[in-house]
Specification:
By secondary structure, the chain is an alpha+beta fold. The protein has 2 helices and 4 strands, in the order βαββαβ. 33% of the residues lie in helices and 37% in strands. The protein has a 4-stranded antiparallel beta sheet. Strand 2 and strand 3 form a beta hairpin.
């Protein structure tokens, strides 16, 4: 089932930061849309919850080098 989640993310300071997060999420199976916005400090992800979980998505963001505010 398709779902959308918004993560509050700290540490994005430039367009390159947005692109790194967006690219790392977008290449994962089950992610249909990823959009990072440094001005809002958030990342919006649309995903298939039968293929990937919110915790998996959070780990991808953290492994990219950014902090997810929970």
């Amino acid at each position: 089932m398709m779902k959308t989640i918004i993560f509050k993310v700290n540490g994005m300071s430039c367009a390159h930061c947005e692109a790194r997060i967006t690219q790392n999420l977008s290449k994962r199976k089950g992610v249909t849309l990823a959009k990072a916005n440094r001005l809002k400090n958030e990342v919006v992800v649309a995903y298939d919850d039968t293929k990937i979980t919110p915790l998996d998505l959070q780990k991808i963001i953290e492994d990219t080098g950014y902090d997810v505010a929970v």
